[in-house]
Amino acid sequence: MTTLNDQTDTLHDELGEQGIDREQLKTTGFGIEEHYELQERKNYKTDPEPIFAGFDGTHSLELRLPVDTDLLNRVLMAVADSETDARFPLSFTIRDPTRIKRKMLAAGVREARADAEAMAEAAGASLGAVLHIDYTWNEVHFTSEVTYSAPEMSEGHSAMPDIEPNSISGSEEVRVQWELVQA
């Protein structure tokens, strides 16, 4: 446990040298598991079982950063060069998903209206008042995952590879019912 705490403190210090406050690094998980050392066993009936060697601890942390390639590269190099043996995935998301979700809903209603107007016109009618709007709530995740492995970030690399997150996409479903007005 002491080793894990020391590694976490070291990581805090190393990230602090890159301008990251301790409060920015948040715990998202913590676990302790038994650790056994395996022995070569030629005969599973007579050879000894694995030997209990202690416990392994994991401390999962999250760090949210603005879109700043220089800062991201410095932080990733600090983690890669760290003696803490930290492993990490990267994910990119948007800061304000509510704003994007509302834009998607508005675009959906505009598209539904354009489609309904085309169908009404073909039927010799026009759209009247909105009679009903049905919206099915969906949880939309605006995340793009990137995975790097330790060899890509080993010592000797003067800079991190250029990181270009994949486009983030989402969808919402809106059903709108209009009154038809005969021409």
Question: Which terms would index this structure?
Answer:
about 180 residues; alpha+beta; 6 strands; about 30% strand; 2 domains; two-stranded antiparallel ribbon; Alpha-Beta Plaits; 3 helices; two-stranded antiparallel sheet; about 30% helix; elongated
Please characterize this protein's 3D structure.
This protein has 183 residues and is of the alpha+beta class. The chain folds into 2 domains: 87 residues, Protein of unknown function (DUF541), domain 2 (Alpha-Beta Plaits, 2-Layer Sandwich); 70 residues, no CATH class. The chain has 3 helices and 6 strands; from the N terminus they run H-E-E-H-E-H-E-E-E. The chain has a two-stranded antiparallel sheet. Strands 3-5 form a two-stranded antiparallel ribbon. It has a two-stranded antiparallel sheet with strand order 4-6. It is elongated and about 90 Å long.
Number of domains: 2
- How would you name the CATH homologous superfamily of the largest domain? Protein of unknown function (DUF541), domain 2
Major beta sheet summary = 2 strands, antiparallel
- How would you state the average pLDDT, rounded? 80
Which strand order spans the largest sheet, edge to edge or round the barrel? 1-2
CATH architecture of the largest domain: 2-Layer Sandwich
Strand elements, count: 6
Please tell me how large the radius of gyration is: 27 Å
What overall form do the CA principal axes indicate? elongated
Q: Which percent range fits the helix content?
A: 25-40%
**What is the end-to-end distance?**
78 Å
| Computed structural class | alpha+beta
CATH class label of the largest domain: Alpha Beta
Compressed to H and E, one letter per element, the order equals HEEHEHEEE
Question: The CATH topology of the largest domain, please?
Answer: Alpha-Beta Plaits
The DSSP helix count reads 3
Taking pLDDT < 50 over at least 5 consecutive residues as the criterion, the unreliable ranges are none
Percent in strands: 25-35%
